[in-house]
Amino acid sequence: MILNKRTKYTIVNLLIILTLLISGCTPKETTEKLSLDHNTNNNIDTVNQNSIKELKVHFIDVGQADCIFIDYEEYDILIDGGNNDDGNLVIDYLRKNNTDDIEILVATHPHEDHIGGLDNVIDNFKVENIIDSGKKSSSKTFKDYKESVTKEVKNGANLIYDKDMVFNLDKDIKFRIIETGDTYKDKNNSSVLTLLDYKDVEFIFTGDMEVESENKVLNKLEDIDILKVAHHGSSSSTCLKFLDKVKPEYAIISVGKNNEYGHPHNETLNKLFKKNIKVFRTDKQGTIVAITDGDNIKFNANPIGFNQKRIKDIVIQSIDLKNEIVLIKNKSKADVDLSGWKLISVKGDQIFNFPKGFMLKGNSTIKIVSGSYNKNLVKDNKDVLIWTKDYIWNNKGDKGKLIDKYGRVISEYPNN
Q1: If you ran DSSP here, which 8-state letter would residue 244 be given?
Q2: Cα separation of 88 and 24, whole Å?
Q3: CA distance linking residue 406 with residue 141, whole number of Å
Q4: Percentage of the residues of the chain whose pLDDT score is greater than 90
């Protein structure tokens, strides 16, 4: 009788089980909690595949710093640990969420606002795997962190310098480390980049990586759902090429209130809002928690919104195509800062950028003139802005659009 492969395996397995039962032994219990698989083929099966399991990602409010806690069943992952003074805060937060040990701890790069509290965390929890950027620092903060890491390694922890690898947390959950390179002068660019993939929901955690490293790893990235915005929303990060590649629906900015760096920068916020990305901020909303079952996502807060009432009160009142005069009115009582706003001639394909710091006072109008305008009109007139001496508007018919600093169309004339 010819046995096929499956039949052979079945007979062998039955013989092994029978031998174990006769000898009074049981199969050896697996003690590994994680599968580290460089080829992404070695998955750990869940105990009950039919049960819906929630994964939670906590963007902990640690002020002008980063700390992210990933909680799934018995697996706990910590990315960064806030500033030096945040160690106890992070420890308390982890304990309140029933954390007994940490399967993966990621130190994205050796700056104080990322590794500051990690020495306290390592000293208080058993850590199985420590992922490090490999970058060093002469700071006391880094020395404290390394001392704690060294002790934990002696106690059995694996110290891994970042490289392309995959941790399989479960059948449908992968935690990926993306190598970004180690030759950058700025340590921010060497931040450990990580991705979390749970069925149809993907997160990306960026540390403080900046445009240089963002561009370098584009070919390793794909569409994601939730972006941890790099470098607290600095304009040195989150370039348009990167956003176009990952296409996030949500963005979380970990940032401190009234910080000295002015984070998040308007340039970054503008990019996010122009792409209709829903934004959350720890400085305004505290700790942000994203919860997913691999198909749906919910948050403990609502995305940051806009003051729509005031914006809707700024309108293009008229456009005199022949005399090249546009009249814009503020119908509200409040002054409105038009910095970063644009007036667009649709057919002429021309753009007027409002001057930085330009305020349109409440219940007032402003004229924007171009072409051979009447010089008496603009002489000593604060209610006039000169666009150009060139002719902009198409006399046979043209449309004007008023765009706010977030790239949204606020008013059109004519509006049909």
Answers
A1: H
A2: 49
A3: 38
A4: 68
Q: What is the CATH number of domain 308-413?
A: 2.60.40.1260
Question: pLDDT confidence of 334, banded at 50, 70, 90?
Answer: confident
Q: How far apart are CA 66 and CA 414, in angstroms?
A: 47
The span from the CA of 317 to the CA of 400, in Å, is: 10
DSSP code of residue 84: G
Contact predicate 323/373, CB 8 Å = yes
Task: List Cα–Cα distances, 154 to 68, 148, 158, in angstroms.
Answer: 26, 10, 9
Q: What is the DSSP letter of 134?
A: -
Selection from 366, 368, 364, 367 nearest residue 331 by Cα: 364
Omega before residue 414 within 30° of 0, cis? yes
The residue assigned the tokens 């050796």 is: 110
- Rounded-to-integer distance, Cα 350 and Cα 344, Å: 6
Specify the amino acid at residue 214. Answer: E
The Cα–Cα gap between 314 and 317 comes to 9
The CATH 2.60.40.1260 domain(s) of the chain lie at: 308-413
pLDDT tens by residue, 368-413 = 999 876 565 655 566 889 898 889 999 889 999 999 876 778 999 9
Beta bridge partners of 333: none
- Encoding tokens for residue 72? 């799934």
For the beta carbon of residue 246, count every other beta carbon within 10 angstroms.
Answer: 20
Question: Whole-model pTM?
Answer: 0.68
**CA distances from residue 316 to 327, 342, 370, 381 in whole angstroms, order as listed:** 6, 12, 16, 19
Top CATH class, 35-299: alpha beta
